[in-house]
Amino acid sequence: MEVFETARLGPVTLRNRVIKAATSEGMTPDALVTDDLIEYHRRPAAGGVGMTTVAYCAVAPEGRTERRQIWMRPEAVPGLRRLTDAVHAEGAAASAQLGHAGPVADASSNRVPAVSAGRFFNPLGMAFTKVATAEDIERITRAHAEAARLAVESGFDAVEIHLGHNYLASSFLSPRLNRREDGYGGPIENRAKVALGIARAVRDEVGDRIAITAKLNMRDGVRGGLEIDDSLHVARGLQEEGTVDALELTAGSSLLNPMYLFRGEMPIPEFAASYKLPMRIGLRMFGKRFLRAYPYQDTYLLEHARRFRAELDLPLILLGGITDRATMDTAMAEGFEFVAMARALLREPDLVNRIAADPSTPSLCIHCNRCVPTVYRGTHCPLVPQPD
């Protein structure tokens, strides 16, 4: 495979195998699309990616990580259609990341309890989570299907089902967060029911009208969390049921160990400044315990992802440390059908076009992670000069 050849993703043809990964934008103050959000995705589309991913489109009001995020409802469709039209005009495809934040939701911001596999105190919302009932699971599963239908109406070419980072479905997968004694707890066969059921509902709703991908943790990166063997069980289930066209492999817990995904420097002062009191003080005092730093290296999720590539026939998307032509070529040589880029494109939205023109083009991203807390303020990479 060659990264700049056209590629099939389910029913969709992409102009190349590079996907802009979902990165929270912080540009929807009224939980609706803005011109800033459209421009945010138009730029990497014009810059050469095959597809850009809008993040984050919650399937229910309480499924938002905070109140300003888009949640999928008819009122959101016109703005989302403007966004997909702008992306399509640049020759790229558009994907909507659909999910329910579960325990990662900020209950104080959303003004409704955060829902999780189990009950525990969530420092993000300074409140205890609500244990999801069977009725909650059924409602949220239906909400994913309805959100996917609205994504079709909005002109999206694909949806990405969020099954990672200890969001709701991922909280059920985690032995640490899921200690239930009903049919959704215990062995992985039970803990996987929510994730597999959501994917099945989305496929049943949209059929092959659009592509369906899923973002799945390989491991949570926390003691007692999801590990690779159990994650492979989920991946095999998705493959066997034919509910997804590709799987994006990720890692880390937004709730317990967020930097396990990002790698690189840890800008604690910038993170603390993004939160209100008392979280701001807590992060300044104890941030190094929660925001643990991990050294950056290219293709840093490849070692774990190799096991998935060896055991699955399903198309896979390699994420993590894809910054230049060499890392893209490594992914292709290892048998991955697509690569996903995030921080490098925040630094340089036109990077893909420049790599295509000159394979020796380096990325200017220095993995400082100062872009990560900026999403709460609706800004971009702080190293990029912004217009007045």
From TrEMBL:
NADH:flavin oxidoreductase/NADH oxidase N-terminal domain mapped to chain residues: 3-231
Alphabetic keyword roster: Flavoprotein, Oxidoreductase
Pfam family, one: Oxidored_FMN
InterPro entries: Aldolase_TIM, NADH_flavin_oxidoreductase, OxRdtase_FMN_N
A GO molecular-function descriptor: oxidoreductase activity
Superkingdom field: Bacteria
Annotated coiled-coil segments of the chain: none
Official protein name in the record: 2,4-dienoyl-CoA reductase-like NADH-dependent reductase (Old Yellow Enzyme family)
Organism this protein belongs to: Actinomadura citrea
